[in-house]
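Hi support team,

I've been running sequence recovery on a batch of backbones for a student project. Most finish fine, but this one hangs at about 90% for roughly twenty minutes before it completes. I'm not sure whether the input is malformed or the queue is just slow. I've pasted the structure tokens below so you can try to reproduce it. Let me know if you need the job ID as well.

Thanks,
M.K.
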């Protein structure tokens, strides 16, 4: 059954499904779940390779650091703020900025918290001008942080004035001329021309607009509000969105599987519908993979935030070459509202969280994580990086030592993720040009900060079969 935004429905003809061999080389493989002490409603990959995560609702004053190599959890509770349903991203120096948080449902806070990955300490920065619950934080090319939307003190009381934080001066500045109420958790992407696209939101479909931060102007890109519950900029200026965006307090309706792409590098960009996912989803997460494909995990076939029986357990992978989805192996746990996913430096994807919805706990709360190994990890020996620099600069050259230089066919640069509520506010992929030397690669760093805002990235090398290395983590400034 298909349904539009006005809830008109129609039935379609039967769709034939072909089942193919389900070997790991075809559908990937899920490891056994790992038990967690918290529900990872918010999750960040740190430059150290550790995961910072925090919990939800009454447990939102609870944060943990997880070392995936040792399995050790370290308590790093924030002493200042309940971080539940804040927005977040990485600063250029690798600290995590968390904007806003939770006092009660629909009631945000003005707090700005910073987490230092080296010292494991939280600190309070200057407060925002406006309290925000469910805002989005975006690292700008100049290293400042843009915060948009978020509910101030009641349902649908969306903060209309974006603010920009300067980490050098510890000052927030309101973009008063850029007044635009957006639904919560807008999906914001810095484009190659430096403007910031609002492609969709986690709450409702929107007219697509683009923000010029310096001019404080919004410009309509596409007036047709096609839906997308999660979104990812899979190449510079090219955005994919899929599934349903929804407010979980609204009446339950069926999810959609629809998928759209937009190319903001074209003169008159519009959303273009591409083949749908195999599974309709709400509360799912899109994760960019090193080979440029996009993984979808989690979500369910209705907008019921606690509807575990409708959970979509199979993952799917989208190919930018064919613009089609392929069904992958199934995970073990239902991961609905408040579930998250992060690409790891070893090219696996960590899926975690789900639950903490309106006081409903089991069986929705997922106190676990689960690693997914995509098919590319079963295709043969992985190329290896034997040495790489720790830092690079815009327009510079990155010298990589690798015994596999002669079979390298691609180099990708992927920003460390910071994910919650179906949107990774940081992830972006920049393909890098390179030349092959003897046992080495000479890689061209991103030309400018619009392509790769300052901060920490994973550099993957991929062989001619699309098999990725373990990443080198590198800071660009
Ligand atoms: Cu939430």
């Amino acid at each position: 059954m298909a349904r539009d935004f006005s809830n008109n429905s129609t039935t379609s003809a039967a769709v034939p499904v072909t089942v193919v061999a389900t070997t790991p080389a075809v559908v990937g493989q899920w490891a056994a779940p790992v038990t967690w002490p918290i529900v990872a409603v918010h999750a960040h990959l740190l430059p150290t390779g550790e995961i910072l995560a925090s919990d939800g609702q009454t447990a939102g004053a609870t944060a943990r650091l997880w070392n995936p190599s040792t399995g050790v959890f370290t308590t790093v509770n924030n002493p200042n703020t309940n971080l539940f349903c804040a927005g977040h991203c990485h600063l250029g120096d690798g600290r995590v900025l968390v904007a806003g948080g939770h006092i009660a449902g629909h009631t945000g806070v003005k707090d700005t918290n910073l987490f230092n990955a080296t010292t494991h300490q939280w600190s309070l920065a200057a407060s925002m001008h406006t309290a925000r619950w469910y805002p989005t934080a975006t690292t700008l090319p100049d290293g400042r942080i843009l915060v948009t939307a978020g509910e101030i003190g009641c349902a649908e009381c969306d903060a209309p004035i974006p603010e920009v934080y300067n980490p050098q001066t510890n000052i927030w500045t309101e973009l008063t001329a850029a007044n635009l109420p957006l639904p919560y958790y807008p999906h914001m992407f810095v484009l190659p021309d430096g403007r910031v696209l609002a492609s969709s939101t986690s709450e409702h479909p929107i007219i697509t607009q683009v923000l010029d931060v310096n001019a404080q102007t919004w410009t309509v890109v596409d007036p047709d509000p096609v839906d997308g519950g999660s979104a990812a900029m899979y190449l510079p200026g090219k955005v994919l969105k899929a599934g349903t965006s929804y407010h979980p307090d609204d009446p339950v309706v069926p999810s959609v599987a629809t998928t759209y792409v937009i190319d903001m590098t074209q003169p008159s960009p519009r959303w273009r519908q591409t083949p749908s996912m195999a599974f309709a989803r709400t509360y799912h997460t899109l994760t960019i993979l090193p080979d440029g494909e996009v993984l979808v995990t989690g979500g369910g076939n209705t907008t019921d935030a606690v509807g575990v029986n409708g959970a979509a357990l199979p993952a799917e992978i989208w190919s930018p070459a064919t613009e089609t989805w392929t069904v992958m192996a199934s995970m073990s746990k239902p991961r609905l509202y408040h579930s998250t996913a992060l690409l790891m430096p070893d090219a696996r994807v960590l899926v975690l969280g789900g639950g903490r919805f309106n006081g409903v706990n089991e069986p929705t709360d997922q106190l676990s994580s689960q690693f997914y190994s995509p098919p590319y990890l079963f295709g043969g020996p992985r190329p290896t990086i034997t040495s790489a620099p720790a830092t690079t600069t815009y327009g510079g050259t990155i010298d990589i030592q690798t015994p596999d230089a002669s079979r390298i066919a691609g180099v990708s640069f992927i920003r460390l993720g910071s994910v919650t509520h179906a949107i990774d506010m940081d992830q972006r992929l920049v393909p890098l040009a390179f030349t092959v030397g003897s046992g080495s690669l000479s890689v061209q760093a991103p030309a400018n900060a619009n392509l790769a805002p300052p901060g920490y990235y994973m550099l993957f090398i991929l062989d001619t079969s699309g098999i990725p290395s373990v990443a080198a983590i590198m800071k660009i400034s």
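--
Follow-up from support: It reproduced on our side and the slowdown came from queue contention, not your input. The two ends are 50 Å apart (CA to CA). No action needed from you.
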